[in-house]
Amino acid sequence: MNLHEKIASREARVGVIGLGYVGLPLAIAFAESGFQVTGIDLCPDKVDALNAGSSYIIDVGHTMVGAVVKNGHFRATTDSSSIRDLDAVCICVPTPLNKNHEPDLSYIEAVLSELKKHLRRGALVVLESTTYPGTTEERIGKGLAEKGWHAGIDYHLCYSPERVDPGNKKYGIRNTPKVIGGVTAKCLELADALYRTITDRTVLVSNPKVAEMSKLLENTFRSVNIAFINEMALMCDAIGVNIWEVIEAASSKPFGFMPFYPGPGIGGHCIPLDPMYLSWKAKGENFFSRFIEVSQDINRNMPRYVVHKISELLNTKKKCINGSRILLLGMAYKPDVDDLRESPSIEVYELLREKGAALTVNDPYCAVMFDADGQQVNVQAEVNDAELGDYDLLVLLTAHSRYDLPGIVASGTLILDTRNAFAGLDAPNVARIGDVLPY
Ligand code: SAJ
């Protein structure tokens, strides 16, 4: 039976390397579609938790994991030699930036060295990690060529960007189209067959570079547009008009406009990082993307603008940041997730800490947070309305849906709203970024 037939019959042994917010949902989806799936991860605690039927990813329920472990369709392991049993391997490892803001492909390189040792002849390899155009062929393709293996002949090689949106209840693997680029037509055909078992629609492109670039275009589009609206917010603040009302009015245009919203900056594992992969690659070809550089600069400086607004607001009460009791609401990078990575809320926290504020941090999703010195910060899980009157200022940084906004307004304490979360409430004590101060 050839690989195509084994995929169709679900007899193909599928592996997912990297069991994070991308790899785990993918592994579970393949297991639920009938494959026998091996999840490979470096972290023994994750492996043990999964094999015990529990999940550590907010979008993957314990019951989902428990069911596929119990029916034998999924097992997790730290042993990468299990690659030798696999017909298809999906790589979902991190692609962070190093301290010079350059791509760090060390995780991909580590997987490559295991593939060189254990990959089965004829197997399909799909890279999903977000990376610059060319990575799949220049790193994995060339790496395996060193042992005389050529994609499309000795094994099959594709790139297919992950499109996981943590916390998104509407779009998941099944209903999010999957872009796939293959080194050869045969590679593409096999990956298409594999992904069609878990997604309603695949989007086939002519090579891995197109697929790699499409992902970076998606996220750079967001980063640039968020930076644009952040600059519009700064402009509206300067000229004395409410950016939030302006966006609402512009959004009434049924064509040719797409709203983005100002905020305290951009966080997460994608938007702050992906454009830097693209600009790094472009620089290598002597192309300097001014859009990306300027956007990164604007977004990175939003926490400073928020602290400036905090200072201005306290000043209206003849107070300064130093010594003021400030409650920060929402440390995760976006609502209803437990992810602190690159969160601008943390940057705001650090800037205020430097200025001597007496800070309290609240987030119902993030129980553990560390400051820049590596010290654990106590994170309040619940908002105690009775205590809100003790603060000089409340700052809404991430609008978790659990927050009782009317209750927070009712405290009467001064509030800086960085997300327009209190829109529509009768809230004379609320000031917004991107607007003039109400006092
Ligand atoms: N943000 C703003 N203003 C906006 C939109 C976002 O300040 O108008 C901020 C958010 O607060 C957050 C950061 O930008 O700190 C990123 O937000 P995001 O909504 O882009 O969320 P992410 O980082 O989870 O992005 C993911 C991405 N998914 C993948 O890379 C597979 C992105 O491509 C999706 O478009 C995005 O989810 C989504 O649409 O929700």
From TrEMBL:
The chain crosses the membrane at residues 12-31. The keyword Transmembrane helix applies. It holds the Pfam family UDPG_MGDP_dh_C. One of its GO terms (biological process) is polysaccharide biosynthetic process. Coiled coil: none annotated. The keyword Membrane applies. GO terms for molecular function: NAD binding; oxidoreductase activity, acting on the CH-CH group of donors, NAD or NADP as acceptor; oxidoreductase activity, acting on the CH-OH group of donors, NAD or NADP as acceptor. Keywords: Membrane, NAD, Oxidoreductase, Transmembrane, Transmembrane helix. Residues 327-424 form the UDP-glucose/GDP-mannose dehydrogenase C-terminal domain. Belongs to the UDP-glucose/GDP-mannose dehydrogenase family. This is Nucleotide sugar dehydrogenase. It comes from Heliomicrobium undosum.
